[in-house]
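Our consortium's second objective concerns turning raw sequence data into structural hypotheses that experimental partners can test. To show how far this objective has progressed, the report includes one record in full. It was chosen at random from the queue rather than selected for favorable results. The single chain below, 217 residues long, was entered without modification.
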Amino acid sequence: MASGMACLQFGTDAFGKEILELVPATPAAAPSETVAIAITAAPSIGDRDQDDHERAAGGATEAAAAACLGEGGESMPYKGENTIVMMEWEKPYMRALVDALAITEESRVLEIGYGIGYSADRIQEFSPRSHTIIEPDPVVLARLRGWAAARPGVRIVEGFWQTALATLGEFDAVFFDDFPLPDTPDSSDLRGPASRWHAFIDLCAAHHLPVGGRITG
């Protein structure tokens, strides 16, 4: 896909399986340049002592997260070639990542990106104390609102995690599934998958995870 504005669209593939795809925005469609799902995995950070939390806090972490947004706080245009954000065959994988969080009825859960809802469905099976979902895309938000209407423990936070995290408190379990901006030779270099993931982990460890908190994604 060429550089430029894009938005999300639900659909099906050639086999009738549901997909979430990034497509070029049209004048009639609300643009959405950041999407919610990445097909990448990283290990849970496991337990961290207080020193780890203190070392993770710092200006460099906040700067790395801020670099994922444009100068005006908007999402940067997607410049990669992959347009498939999520596919139905990923469902077992998403469920396994959620299972690794060891969610209980006392858990406060944060989810970054709703996508098709596979991870959210699995999280709800554990009946956590709270379930907060950060989602920026208007197309995905429309589906998310309908899903959350019958689940009173779910809180929707509209916006990008880079700015929304600062408004939130602590969570025992965090599921991160943000669609990354690929590395490019221009000013988007710092917005690649690794930097986004590591910036997010450091922000959570510094400000949003108690000792023993868990992250998967």
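The partners drew two points from this record. The first strand starts at residue 6 and ends at 12. The mean pLDDT is 69. Both points have been shared with the crystallography group to help prioritize constructs.
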